[in-house]
């Protein structure tokens, strides 16, 4: 399941974070990072998915 979340995190970072932690602080941080730059959003999303297994 983590592989699917990582693929979704690459395509749409907030969706990958949402599937892992829901509407928490990390979700809103990821939306902000994705709006500021797509790559920081991807890095944060993958980090959240790996950290909160």
From TrEMBL:
<dbReference type="Pfam" id="PF01679">
    <property type="entry name" value="Pmp3"/>
</dbReference>
<dbReference type="InterPro" id="IPR000612">
    <property type="entry name" value="PMP3"/>
</dbReference>
<feature type="transmembrane region" description="Helical">
    <location>
        <begin position="7"/>
        <end position="25"/>
    </location>
</feature>
<keyword id="KW-0812">Transmembrane</keyword>
<keyword id="KW-0472">Membrane</keyword>
<keyword id="KW-1133">Transmembrane helix</keyword>
<protein>
    <submittedName>
        <fullName>YqaE/Pmp3 family membrane protein</fullName>
    </submittedName>
</protein>
<feature type="transmembrane region" description="Helical">
    <location>
        <begin position="31"/>
        <end position="50"/>
    </location>
</feature>
<comment type="similarity">
    <text>Belongs to the UPF0057 (PMP3) family.</text>
</comment>
């Amino acid at each position: 399941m983590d592989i699917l979340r990582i693929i979704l995190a690459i395509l749409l970072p907030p969706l990958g974070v949402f599937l892992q932690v829901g509407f928490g602080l990390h979700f809103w941080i990821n939306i902000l990072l994705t709006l500021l730059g797509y790559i920081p959003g991807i890095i944060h999303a993958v980090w959240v998915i790996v950290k909160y297994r």
